[in-house]
Amino acid sequence: MLKILLDTNLLIYREEHAVIDEKVLKLTKILYDSNRFRMVIHPLTIEDLRHIKNEKERKIFLNKIKIYEKLDKPPKATSKFNNNVGCSKIPNDIIDNNILYVVYKNCVHYLITNDNKLKKKAKKINLDDRVLNIDQAIELFNNEESKETRTPAFIKIDYLYNIELNDSFFNSLRLDYKDFDEWYITKSRNGKKAYVSYDENGKIGSFLMLKIEDENENYSKFKIPFEKNKRLKISTFKVANTGNKIGEAYIKIILEEAKLNNLNEIYVTVFKKQKELIHLFEEYGFNYKTTKMTERGDSTLEEEFVYVKHMDDDTYPNFDWKNRNVFIVPIRQKYHEMLFPESENKLQLSFGDIKGINSYSNSIKKAYICKSPSKQILNGDILLFYASEQKKAITTIGIVDNVFSNFNSPEELFNMARKRTVYTLEEIKENYSITSKLILFKYYKILDMPITYRELIEKGILKSAPMSIVKIDSENLKEKIRKIIN
Asked: Do 142 and 205 share a domain, yes or no?
């Protein structure tokens, strides 16, 4: 969550009971409608407002200012800082310097002000990218809000107050956690959201709620408390139907949320009985860290395990381009839509994708079946999936887990790929040959900007449309692809 400091002049502008500028209204809507921002004021702002000469206006502003959170014990600007930015003995100048100092000391992420003098001071100490006027704030925070985690069609993100708390789905959570309903209602009133899916009867089938924690979070209940840091907490996570790889779909969402918010650490607490959930988290790089005692619905205490994942470790979704082969893998549009639904317009998706029953769509681990005789594809190699026909572009990156060949029958091949391939047994039988190859891979990411066929030709990466798997041999070409992707 970004902590936004509002300057005195902006507050007077914002709280003016006359006509409010359209840009201020727009900025206010962006900040208030989002869960990503937390608005605060400096205690000296209150002192500044006390200098308003008009008694009636002064009372109005001092009363309205109470809705904002005050910075607790903000550091005071030092003499060295005042010398660097310039400071007169005028009270307003001293207040401005102290407000700017909390940005300098990283007590907040940004300061919004319409004071040009304050902006000039910020530029002297290279803080001009964090001290914003209204126009700059609208542009930056609009872009922040436009970042959305890609989700499969069957998973929605919605406000808690739109999700039925009385659904029997939550019964097990009521048993596991004391005062679960009260906690849920409080979060609902605070405008919190969650990821949710529904079954064919309209009942909740899965639920994920995340929370961004900052340096002020209290971890004293942990046997080994965390160090102060920003991290992503998996607050609530439950999947009713575990047979369709929906858990993997949520792992993708969790990791994407951490990346979008530039968070390097994710953690979750789980009970010992939740063996499948523990296995899922361990598979994707979560490691046991410590424990905490939790009060259950019947007021007894039970130990929860705390698992942590670092985003820069060597587990999924990280990979290294060095010493890896890179292959462009053509895939027909029909199968591309089924295997990578997040890259498709939802109108193109099948009933199975919309209801979440296609396990190959939900999973991180997927399968690609081909007749390529190549024996060059190895574990850890990089696959760039090229959607042929309509798209004619590289849309998706995958990382090879394993490669199998020399199958005795199409049934053997199908059984190894079950739940991870878009092909039916009948389709495999029709296309089966002695050169049939099964490539098991992990989905890495959907490209925000697909690499088009035209771009591939212009950059010399391809000479013609790929009809089978193409290895990129040149390091120069690999570097061109890396630059386009990154």
From this structure: no
